[in-house]
Amino acid sequence: MTVTIADIEAAADVIAGDVVRTPTVAAPGLSREAGCEIYLKLESLQLTGSFKARGARNRLGVIDPATSRGVIACSAGNHAQGVAYFAERMGIAATIVMPRETPFAKVTRTERYGARVILEGDSFAAAQSHTTELAASESLTFVHPYDDDQIIAGQGTAGLEMAEDAPDLDVVLIPVGGGGLIAGCAIALKARMPSVEIIGVEAELYASMKAALAGKHIEGTGATLAEGIAVKTPGARTLPIVKDLVDDMVAVDEPAIEAAVELMADTGGVIVEGAGAVPLAAVMQDRPRFAGRRVGLLVSGGNIDMRLYASVLLRGLVRGGQMVRLRVQITDAPGNLAQVSQLIGDAGGNIVEIVHQRMFFDVPVKETDLDAVVETRNAAHAAEIVAKLEEAGLPTRLLSDVAAPPGTHRT
To answer: Is 366 tagged catalytic?
Structure first.
């Protein structure tokens, strides 16, 4: 093993004062939902909103600004911001290569830290290829996002802090992309808490580490909410560490990740990106495994696109039956719309949006379908509203799918 606990302790000294010593806090609301005692390591509160700041600071600490031509990294998100932030603070020129489809918000944040941002390639692989070429042609030092000993040691400081703050944890769940975070944290946690169980969590679409541990290779594809861990190939340095120290690897699907992001906000009061929510998703999809145990979740980051986040939260309301779409059949005559509104209001529903459907052949010419988006307390309340409309002689059906994934529905 190339990285030791001594390396992580040394990294902690290097980064002290430059990165946030994030808290590990009890989460009683999430504990109640999950049926276990949950503690959150909130790397979402880190300087750049992600644990990546730790590794970036430690890696750049071995570079001499006086002799360096600059550093270069390939990233569409958290690694880019970590490298750019500390390069600017340490007087090192930084170049960040991003795929052309990178969201504007991420490009802007990275440029804000003074980095030269180059948009190149239609895929991350194409951007990586250009990064290699540019590093060679301009004599720039490449800063790998995970497969680097200094990076691994820096990320491991999060595990060191977790062991200091919550030494009686039974199990810790950690997001896994290329493996830098879990490799470093596993070294630290097993050194300080030898009996702790460590579980790595991947997005099901990109379960490359789990496959590699089984001697297989997969080509992860598809759009995932956990884009921060959408890595096709684990690191050559990280893989053997994970094999030696990590007790289990699990994968979670997209509905589980989305539900976990919403649950973290609604019940935990924490904004997280998809990658930061996968540990909670793993607990919620297998609650019997964790029942009654002290469970640590490493919340790796909170850098989520706000438009996407708004969509996740609204979809969460639909999933919990708190936002439903009703189709009510009425006679197309004055006063009937007011009757529907009155009945819904009297039943405690709040109409958010209403649309008439008059032009389709499945609706009689003297009648109309009224589509109403209604805010309710929960799925049971929505059923009560439907019943009230039916009792008034207004045929009504629920168009929204309010079925929640197992373990995610709340009343």
So the answer is: no
